[in-house]
Each structure stands twice: as C-alpha cells, then as structure tokens.
Specification:
Blueprint: H1 8-15, H2 42-50, H3 58-72, H4 76-89, H5 96-105, H6 126-139, H7 143-153, H8 161-170, H9 177-184, H10 190-198, H11 204-212, H12 218-227, H13 239-246, H14 248-252, H15 258-272, H16 286-299, H17 304-319, H18 325-337
Helix pairs in contact: 3-4, 4-7, 6-7, 7-9, 10-11, 12-13, 13-15, 15-17, 16-18, 17-18
C-alpha cells in the first residue's frame, strides 16, 4: 500500500466517507495549476466528447519513450517526473493507446536473445514497468502520472488484491474514474466492478462509467433507467446511452410506476437537450418512442418537471422537418388537461 501521505491515492482514501467521496470533494491542483479551475474529470471529459484525437507528435513521442525508459529501469521518481512532463505536453487521456502499444511492441520475452544485426533494439522489462506503474498509482502526487500509471496497469490483467483496491479507490475520484474503469473491464467480474463503482460517483466519472457498463441483468438495466441521466455535469451527455442500455421502449410498453415514469421523463428531457451531445436525433423510430411516452403520460400523475418535459417535447416537435402535428396535438391535450 501507499507510504506517501501526500499521494493522490492517500488523499482520496483518507477522504472517503462510507465508501465514497463527500460531495464537493476536489483533488489538490498540484504544480500545473490551471488559469481556469476545472472540476475533477472535466478536462478529460471535454476532450473525449468535444475534441478529435490526434496522434502524438515527434516531440511528445520522444518524451513518452523517455518516460518508458525510466519505467524500464524501475526508476520510480524519474518515471514520475517524466510522466508529469509528458502529461503537461499531451495528457494521458489523449495517448493511452500509444503508450500501451509502445510497451507491448517492445516487450522483452524471457527467451529473447540479443539480435546481432540490431544491437540497439529496445527490449523492455515488463516486470520493471509493471512495478513502476503500481508505484505510480499509489505514491504519485501528480494527476497525469497516476493516469499514466493506471493506463499501463491495464496491460497487466492480473494484479494482487491490494493493487486492485488502489485501482478501485482511485476510481472513486471523477478525475480517475475512466482510467480505473479501463482496468476494471479487463477483470473476470469487471462489469460487476463497474456497476459497484458507478453508484458511488456522480460527476464525469458516472458519465464515463455508464459508457462501459453493460446491462447484463434486470437489476443493472433498471438502475440505468432510474439513474442513467442523473449526474452532476449535464444529463444530456448520457441521454442516448441511458435510453439504449435501459431499453426504455421495453419499459414504456409496460405499466410504469410513478417513479419509473419520472425517470423516463428525465431521460426524455435529456434527449431533447442536444447542445452538449446528440440525443433524440439518434433514435430511429422516434414517433413510436414518443407516442409510447405520451401514452404513459396520459395515465400518470404528472409533476411540474414532467409537464415541463412535455412542453419541451411539443416545442421540439414543432421545429422538426418531419410532420409531427399529431405529437404536438397530444402534448397540448395533456398540458391542457393536467
């Protein structure tokens, strides 16, 4: 376990209350202070949703190779500093595949013999690199170094339980959730691990975790229905994912409880907000979905939020190129009646 009381892992672990971080928790800024402070996980979330990935340039790739060289020598402190520098040049979120592919393609097999025709060939010690990655996630005080450590840990699918616990605990911070989830999904019970984690995060971490959570059981599917768009960022980021993974049309064909209908209304409202991310425009048979929703609305006790969602649906329908006059009429009837 970690020995550095100032490591980000120890800060997170010592801040837990009943197995999760308290509301308003934020990691310390560290050396690379931002001119505009971002919520934990926000910069990486913005990159994933709104920026196009570009391969590392020559300068950044050279720094990546220098950092891997430090890891190959099991020089923990030098690795930490080299990855901190790489993170300030090209964040870990922008280059997980590159560093993993570089390590895997240059890994040293125990039976390898030196190639006399290529004496300068780079052959990496996976043991040293694994040891360094485990040290980084437990001991580093730098966000990007921890992220790179988690990225490298993903290569090694079999970790002792104490290392797995570190990965789980780091995932409770929105800053690291996505990197922890990439590890969890490779474990034998990975989907259950992600399901356990997603219920303990509410910011960017929940948004990322939902993308990888598979609705393999009725319990998970129902949880996604009830909570899939409930996050502290913007519900629209998970609207289409929640709609698909919950199987909303399946639920709408049944008699919903008031709480279930309220959850469907929140998903509908998030789908209609297509500013941050595509939502309702991605649904194939929109008319069927909308009419099933309105069928339920006609027999449910509606609150102010439900009525506002139906009003937003009516406004959206009036602006669509497709003729949705019947939808508008149904919305008006429900609004007038309720």
């Amino acid at each position: 376990m970690a020995t550095n009381t100032n490591s980000l892992y120890n800060i997170i672990n010592s801040s837990l209350v009943d197995g999760r971080l308290p509301e308003g928790f934020s990691l310390p800024e560290g050396k690379e202070k931002q001119e505009i402070p971002f919520a934990d996980g926000a910069m990486d979330g913005i990159y994933m949703f709104h920026m196009e990935h570009t391969p590392l340039n020559e300068r950044d790739r050279a720094q990546m190779e220098a950092a891997v060289d430090c890891m190959n020598r099991a020089d923990f402190e030098a690795s930490d500093e080299a990855l901190r520098k790489l993170g300030s040049m090209a964040g870990a979120i922008a280059s997980p595949d590159e560093i993993q592919e570089y390590i895997i393609s240059h890994a040293k097999n125990p039976n390898d013999k030196p190639d006399p025709d290529n004496p300068d060939e780079i052959r990496l010690s996976l043991k040293n690199i694994c040891d360094t990655a485990r040290w980084l996630i437990a001991e580093s005080e730098n966000k990007e170094s921890v992220k790179f450590g988690l990225t490298v840990c993903e290569i090694f699918k079999h970790h002792p339980e104490d290392v797995k616990d570190i990965i789980r605990i780091l995932g409770l911070s929105d800053e690291f959730t996505i990197f922890s989830v990439w590890n969890l999904r490779t474990w034998p019970d990975g989907n259950d691990e992600i399901f356990s984690l997603i219920k303990k995060v509410r910011g960017w971490g929940r948004i990322h975790a939902l993308h990888y959570l598979e609705p393999r059981t009725p319990e998970i599917r129902h949880w996604i229905l009830m909570n899939g768009v409930d996050n502290d960022v913007v519900p629209a980021y998970t609207s289409i994912t929640a709609w698909e993974k919950a199987g909303v049309n399946y639920f709408l064909a049944k008699d919903l409880t008031p709480d279930e209908f309220r959850a469907v209304s929140r998903i509908m409202d998030a789908l209609l907000d297509e500013g941050p991310a595509d939502g309702i425009s991605l649904i194939g048979d929109k008319k069927r979905f909308i009419n099933l929703y309105l069928d339920q609305a006609e027999k449910q006790p509606l609150d102010a939020n439900d009525l506002e969602t139906i009003r937003s649906l009516r406004d959206w329908a009036t602006e669509e190129e497709e003729d949705l006059t019947a939808v508008c009429k149904r919305c008006d009837e429900i609004l007038g009646d309720k």
